[in-house]
Amino acid sequence: MAAPALSPVRPAPAGPTRRRRSGSRAERLAPLVLVAPAVLIIVGLRLWPLVLGVNFSFTGDGDRDGVMVGLDNYATLFSDPLFRTALRNVGLLVLLLPVAVAIPGLLATFIYLRVPGHRVYRGVYFFPAVLSPVIVGAIFTLLLAFDGPLNGLLGGLGIGPVDWLGDPGVAFFVVVAVHVWATFGMALVVFLAGFATLDQSLLDAARVDGASFPQTVRHVIVPSLKRTIQFVLVTTMIGMLTSMFGLLYVMTSGGPEGSTYLPEYYIWIQQGRLNQPALASAASTALFVIMLVVGLAQIAILRRAAGKED
C-alpha cells in the first residue's frame, strides 16, 4: 500500500512580522526625527560659534590678525588690572548670590502663606522684570545722584550725602542691588511654581508640632524645594554675569576707577571701543569657563547638602 503523499510545508506569512519590525523601527526613529531640528539649531547657532570663538581667542589682533599666538591673549588678560578687577567682582557676586536668591524665596514664601494683599504683591514684585535695564538704570541714576532724592531724604534725617555711584567702595554693590531689584520677580515666579509641588500635609504637621517660621523654612520648605533652589541659584548667577551690561553702561560706565567692571563689560570695551576682537574672544572664553565652574560647584554643594539632610 502506497504511503500517502505529504503536502509541502508552507512558510507562515511574513507580512504581520515585517510590519511589526518596520513599525518598531519607525517608533525608534521618530524621537530622533523630532529632536533633530532642535539639535541642528543648537549645534549651528550655539556650539559651532562657541568653538569658533575659542579658536579665535588663540589668534592675534592688529598686525597679527589671523596669526596663531597661542596663550598670549590669556596672558594679556590676566596681566590687565581691569580684568583682574572684573574677576574680583565675580567673586563678590558669588558671595552675594545667597542674598539674591533668599530675597525672592522669602517673598514667595510669604505669598504662598497668603499674607494680606498677596495677590497685589505678586504683580508688584514681578513688574520690574518687564522693564528694560536701560530704563531701570536711568531711573536709579536719577534717584541715586549726589544731589538726588535719596540723599535729600538722608539729609532730612541728619545723615550726610553718600556718593552712591561715585565711590569705588560703594558703586558696585549699588549696581548689584539695583539688578537684584529689577530681576528677582522672575525668580519669585519660579519659586511660586515650586511651591505648587509642596506637600501641604508637611506644613500642617509642622504647624501642629509648634514649629516656628524659621524652623518651618529650614526643615520643611528648603528640603522640599531643593530642585527649585538649584535652578534659581544657577540661573541667577548666569544672569548676574551676563545681564548687567545695560545697568553698568547707564549707571557707571565701568567706573569709578574701573571698580564696577565685570567680564561682560570688559568684553564690550575690548571689542566695541578698542577693536581687539581676539582679546575679547579670550575674555568670552574665560567668562564661559567661570560660569561653567561656578554652576557645577553650586550644584555639587547643594546636592551634598541635600544628601546630608536625607
From TrEMBL:
Family to which the UniProt record says this protein belongs: Belongs to the binding-protein-dependent transport system permease family.
Annotated ABC transmembrane type-1 domain residues: 82-298
Keyword Transmembrane: yes
Sequence segments annotated as region (Disordered): 1-23
Entry's localization field: Cell membrane
Keywords on record: Cell membrane, Membrane, Transmembrane, Transmembrane helix, Transport
Name of the protein in question: Sugar ABC transporter permease
